[in-house]
Amino acid sequence: MENILNEIISNKSITVAILAWFFSQSIKIVINILKEKKIDLRLLLASGGVISSHCAAVSALAISVGRNFGWNTPLFAISAIFASIVISDASGIRQEAGKQAEILNKIIEDLYQKKGIKTERLRELLGHSAMEVFFGVLLGILMGTIFW
Fold first, then answer.
1. Most buried one in 80, 118, 119, 139, CB count within 10 A?
2. Are 21 and 53 in contact (CB under 8 A)?
3. DSSP state of 46
4. What's the pTM value of the predicted model, to 2 decimals?
5. Of 71, 66, 44, 54, the residue nearest 20 (C-alpha)
């Protein structure tokens, strides 16, 4: 068990990803100090805001894997695809969820202040149907098999 822990701790790719996450979260604290003139360490674990720690961590991971194991290796391919999924999620689905939260907050505020409710139309379908997932997986399997 100790050997496994030592190997994980000495893994450069994990280390660089964690450092990128920690650095991006620390920047949120510095920005808050400059704006609010106070230290809020809860921001170290908060999601959202500048800089995306998710994007920083997966980008650092992919670059580290590419540099350590080669740009044409399956390990780099896995990390690059993983990174692009996380980045897409961070800039797409999570952004839409944030817009929904913003509108819900406005509705609560308007109801509390007895104002009229004004909303914009949001994308309601954020996920995929089972059939869309099935054909996506099937296409991926076919492409991987054909180009292997």
1. 80
2. yes
3. -
4. 0.68
5. 54
CA-based angle 102:56:103, to the nearest 5? 5
Residue 48 and residue 28 in contact, taking contact as beta carbons nearer than 8 Å: no
Which among 49, 30, 48 has a CA at the least distance from the CA of 40?
A: 30
Mind listing the pLDDT tens digit of every residue in the chain (148 residues)? 789 988 988 898 998 898 888 888 888 888 888 888 888 777 666 666 667 788 888 999 999 999 999 999 999 999 999 988 888 777 667 667 777 877 887 887 777 777 665 655 555 555 555 565 567 667 767 776 776 4
Listed in sequence order, the residues at least 6 apart from 61 whose beta carbon sits closer than 8 Å to its beta carbon are 13, 14, 16, 17, 20, 79, 82, 83
Query: Can you give the residue ranges of every domain in the chain?
Result: 2-146
* Cβ neighbour number for residue 143 with a 10 Å cutoff: 10
